[in-house]
Amino acid sequence: MDDMPNQRANTDLFDRYGLTRLINASxxxxxxxxxxxxxxxxxxxxxxxxxxxxxxxxxxAACHVIARVxxxxxxxxxxxxxxxxxxxVAGCMAGTDxxxxxxxxxxxxxxxxxxLQRGHNVTYGGYITxxxxxxxxxxxxxxxxxxxxxxxxxxxISPEVAAAVYVVSHHTVQxxxxxxxxxxxxxxxxxxxxxxxxxxxxxxxMFLRAGADLVITSMQKQFASFTAATVAGRMDLVRAAYxxxxxxxxxxxxxxxxxxxxxxxxxxxxxxxxxxxxAKLEERLRYGRERLSRLPGITVTTELDSTSRxxxxxxxxxxxxxxxxxxxxxxxxxxxxxxxxxVRNLMADLGLLxxxxxxxxxxxxxxxxxxxxxxxxxxxxxxxxTEAAANPPTANLADVALAGLARFPLPN
Length: 412
Hints:
- By secondary structure, this protein is α/β, with parallel strands linked by helices.
- About 40% of the residues lie in helices and about 15% in strands.
- It has two domains: about 10-35 and about 275-405, Aspartate Aminotransferase, domain 1, CATH 3.90.1150; about 40-270, Type I PLP-dependent aspartate aminotransferase-like (Major domain) (Aspartate Aminotransferase, domain 2), CATH 3.40.640.10.
């Protein structure tokens, strides 16, 4: 985004603490620090943090901003999307009965089942089923990983069901499952509220319009804010989620900086010229396609986002026999550069890399493209690989994540 703060500012922190300078062309993953924070948010937080404030008043002000911007009844700010899911589920179980709020995760006397399509049982760094279970709820999975019908959902809704969760993410199975409008209709016919986890999605209003009762959206991803999330939707359920301040939501509570940052981010998002933004992104994508298509063994296409359908990324298919390296090796080679360049390698085992240019400047776009050219040409200098040598097993990303955890703390 062109109005991102100058990322060269305060680079002495990187030198002081030995941090890697990074250009993020992967997306908004929290392991990469999510989005750069926009100037409007920084100004609002700087104005608020030296002050004391009544948090009920601040959350109430945020409620009205969320309701206006997302065109819904109410909203509350949570510490992150995972916290938002937990307090939304807990709110559906306990309501505004404070005795029940304080009772959780003991669900005695409450509806405690939460329905989830099996193809939505994903991990976003933590398992969504674990996140739900923290409340004391029992997850009821329906259908198969790649197939689920409305009849599965209808059959699973017993008198014990407190809510149903619908996950919108590139991590989920992308076909064969129940669409959101049908999911909401079946649930509402049986008086079951629908909670949408739309953490990284750029347009939360589409889920509310589809019938969702609560929609949880990350603020540090698409909205360029501090770490926080909004829980938006029905007034009664938003109030119930807020009551979890006195329950399981207490260890997840948000501070004043997160609430005011959310308000500033939403007001900025409301005023964005989306046509201008889309045109700038398209120009970067066109430039990237033209340059990278010249590389041997690299096929470049433009891929529409699979969930929102509102923006595109570059999709690189790496033929290791022609390129001299695998997709995963290209991604690790980019991370070894200075500055490091992160690309999305979740499908590297299929030879695919995704390049997200939404949050980078034109200067950084040039660095990303030049970096890919450099790594590919360095591999070409070593010689074109034979087919057998060019297809080593791609690293298992779950095991890579474990290896990263095991390295903590890194040496000083």
